[in-house]
Amino acid sequence: MEKRVVITGLGICSPNGVSIPEFEESLRSGTSGITFHPQLKELNFSCQIGGKPEISETKLAEYFTPLQLRGLNSSGIVYGVISGTDAWKDAGLEISDGSSPDWDTGIIFGTGILGVDKFREAIHLIDEGKTRRLGSTSVIQTMASGISAYLGGILGCGNQVTTNSSACTTGTEALLMGYERIKAGKAQRMLVGSCSDHGPYVWGGFDAMRILPGNYNEYPEAASQPMSANASGFVPGSGAGALILEDLESALERGAKIYTEVLGGEVNSGGQRGEGSMTAANNEAVQRCIVGALKNSKVSASEIDLINGHLTATSKDSVEIKNWVQALSSNSVFPYINSLKGMTGHCLSASGSMECVASVLQIDKDFIFPNINCDEVHPEILDLISEERIPRKIIEEPINIIAKASFGFGDVNAVVIFKKYV
After folding, report:
1. Are 155 and 237 contacting, i.e. CB atoms less than 8 angstroms apart?
2. pTM above 0.90, yes or no
3. Are residues 294 and 192 in the same domain?
4. Which of 253, 274, 305 is the last residue of a domain?
5. Which structural domain, as residue segments, surrounds residue 234?
């Protein structure tokens, strides 16, 4: 018999909050975590702003031993370990130091580009003939699965421990992969999430593509404008989000807090055919992904209260909403829709998991966070949906079902459906 899957733990490492209470408060108040980065100015970037979690040395010492911190130079691993460990503790799980791993719990924690600064450090040392100075952790900090390996060792997980990578879809895909494993009875719990490094060596390629805003360097908090008529490109960000998925029977047995239930979802690709390309989505594939997620979750379009969109603050925002309108054609009233990226920027491979955390909080606490920096909605969007469906102030009302979407480079898509647990 297929298992029901619920969420029992949350962790976040966001530009606008490095704990769940801090993050929730920022969501409610519409607080941006985007700041000016002098290093980007020194390197002649057009866009000199970005979203970066602030982690103090004291905070680091809470999650890493002095030995683990020695030579640690991967911001993605730092963000992932903090959010993953916090989600574990939030779920009421203990970190065992015994000799036997937890065979019933696994990890799927994704990333895009990991350990870029460590790579740069290693390249310099190798070019200078100083290979022996690389240190013993250079490999695990730069391998894609470094984040799941770090978390697996810290938490002692003995089920599947792996890393996925699907550009901006990574975090939402990781959640659905973990969901499927529990649903099939192959694990009781899965820690799922994703992380992204910060800095010029990650963000530089996007600046070169001229898809980042270069006219808000003096006004960083106003720069990210999803769905706005004035949107001029996405602001790069970084961080990590983490969630504990658990089969319902296990969660009830141990008396865990249940944030919400995962009903299902869909993952697909547009094959870079039709309108699809390496950087643009195939609209038919996006619509099929939305419809497939609803079908797999046994949910009708009219039951969706809120869409947490991908919505990056580019010209593609109106295209995304057109795809939602067409996919939900049976729905007489379009759901509310919001985007986290106005507050955090686009956190790349971390975005899906961070936005899943934000979605779950909205269901659990019955509120819809505002779309900041969207004073004037893009006219193409207003041709599709009414303005009141794009809240600019917090809405406090019961939220039963949220559809969360992520669309990534490579023409890949993921949609997950969350429902209040009753």
Report:
1. no
2. yes
3. no
4. 253
5. 5-253
- In this structure, the answer to whether residues 52 and 187 fall within a common structural domain is yes
The answer on pLDDT for 330 being more than 80 is no
Q: Are 400 and 373 members of one domain?
A: yes
- pLDDT band per the 50, 70, 90 thresholds, residue 331: low
Distances in Å between the Cα of 237 and the Cα atoms of 79, 110, 153, 168, 319 are: 12, 16, 27, 12, 23
pLDDT at 390 over 70: yes
Same domain, 87 and 107: yes
pLDDT at 332: 73
Span 275-323, pLDDT tens digits: 999 999 999 999 999 999 999 999 999 999 999 999 999 989 999 999 9
Number of Cβ within a 10 Å radius of residue 193: 37
Instruction: Please state the rounded mean pLDDT for residues 64-75.
Output: 88
Question: How many domains does the structure of the chain reveal?
Answer: 2
pLDDT band at 341 (very low <50, low <70, confident <90, very high): very high
